[in-house]
Amino acid sequence: MDYRSIESSDSSRNKCAACYRQFNRKEHLVDHMRTSFHSVHEPMCGVCKKRCRSFESLREHLIGPLPKVECAKIFSTRGCNICLTILDSPYTLRMHRGACQLPRPNGLISSMASMKIYDNMKIDNGRERTTPSVVALACKMVGGGNDGTLDICARVCLTDEHDNIMFQTYVKPHIPVTNYRFETTGVRPENIRDAMPLKQVQRKIQDFLCNGEPVWKIRSRGGKARILVGHGLDHDLDCLGMEYPALMIRDTAKYPPLMKTSKLSNSLKYLTHTYLGFEIQTGIQDPYEDCVSTMKLYMRMRSQNHKLEHYPLASDPQNRNNFAQWREAELEKMSPDDLLVVSRSDYYCWCLDLKGYA
Ligand SMILES: [Zn+2]
Ligand SMILES: [Zn+2]
Ligand SMILES: [Zn+2]
Ligand SMILES: [Zn+2]
């Protein structure tokens, strides 16, 4: 008789301490831990402490369509349906909701800003900051090419951590516009005809982001360059003809806890409605609103209170051997909790920006 099969009939021994999946054999649990990259940075159910890959899966766990019954019951009386935390009582929930659900950003500022060039970008020469400064970028595109489907940047906006506009302008296109997409962009030919040329916009934004640091030097953390926040920044930067180091980019379309699945992003409109509690992009779209939304999402994610670890990433050299094949025998003897203790995240959690890791 196989001795191991008797041992593994004690099912709780092989239950993942993070997602509670059950395995028949310890080696399968070890395999699961090796590939799932569970960590303290994953969204967690405030009732059963289960860890989820994303806020979307935590939402399913708590709200449905097929929620975990015990958790859903508690959540329905004192859970916040925006940030998904559980409060002590229905009373503290009411207090909390007032702060958690944000009002729509001030429409007056944005409509004023949309009229003219706004240029408040300064390079700071001052002393080193403990946390790098953060700016949000958003663009609005008009159409080019024969069928009007080629995206051309026509408006750009850059805001700081306090939603102040640092830079905002219409952009003069470098190729002919064949579809102004007026219903969503609000852009008319006269807005961009004599606007700031793309090259100039590019240079201004690049200088501001690098903040006096040569681009080649922005390879390590702790420099003067600014963190860039946005939604789908690859596309925005592409349309602006710019490059910026991945290390300095915080993209709400690519941050695993905010994604729909491991491959699919949520729209910024959906994220803003669901995780901030206000509406954007309801008619003519203002890039200022997109900046404010992505910045607020970033700030919420950055302020998550996760335990500090010395080497938080699975890719940190110190963690290279945590689940190495040659440690298999040792790993199979460890408890599910101990396996979780050595497991590390495969993505950079934004809470690390505040912990001085960046
Ligand atoms: Zn698991
Ligand atoms: Zn974290
Ligand atoms: Zn739960
Ligand atoms: Zn909340």
Topology, pairings included?
Layout: H1 3-7, H2 26-36, H3 55-63, H4 69-78, H5 90-100, H6 107-113, E1 118-119, E2 134-144, E3 150-159, E4 165-172, E5 177-179, H7 182-185, H8 189-192, E6 196-197, H9 198-210, E7 227-230, H10 233-240, E8 249-251, H11 268-275, H12 287-302, H13 328-333, H14 336-342
Parallel strand pairs: 2-7, 4-6, 7-8
Antiparallel strand pairs: 1-4, 2-3, 2-5, 3-4
Helix pairs in contact: 11-12
The structure holds zinc ion (4 copies).
What does this protein structure show overall?
It is found in: Nucleus. InterPro entries: REX4_DEDDh_dom, REXO1/3/4-like, Ribonucl_H, RNaseH-like_sf, RNaseH_sf, Znf_C2H2_type. GO terms for molecular function: 3'-5' exonuclease activity; exonuclease activity; nucleic acid binding; zinc ion binding. The protein is an alpha/beta fold. It has two domains: about 5-100 and about 315-355, no CATH class; about 105-300, Nucleotidyltransferase, domain 5 (2-Layer Sandwich). The protein is about 35% helix and about 10% strand. It has 14 helices and eight strands. It has helices at about 5, 25-35, 55-65, 70-80, 90-100, 105-115, 180-185, 190, 200-210, 235-240, 270-275, 285-300, 330-335, 335-340, and strands at about 120, 135-145, 150-160, 165-170, 175-180, 195, 225-230, 250. Strands 1, 2, 3, 4, 5, 6, 7 and 8 form an eight-stranded mixed β-sheet that branches. A hairpin with a 5-residue loop joins strand 3 and strand 4 (about 165-170). Helix 11 crosses helix 12 (about 285-300). The longest helix has 16 residues, at about 285-300. Mean pLDDT is about 90; it is low at about 1-10. The structure holds zinc ion (4 copies). The site of one zinc ion has 6 residues, from helix 5.
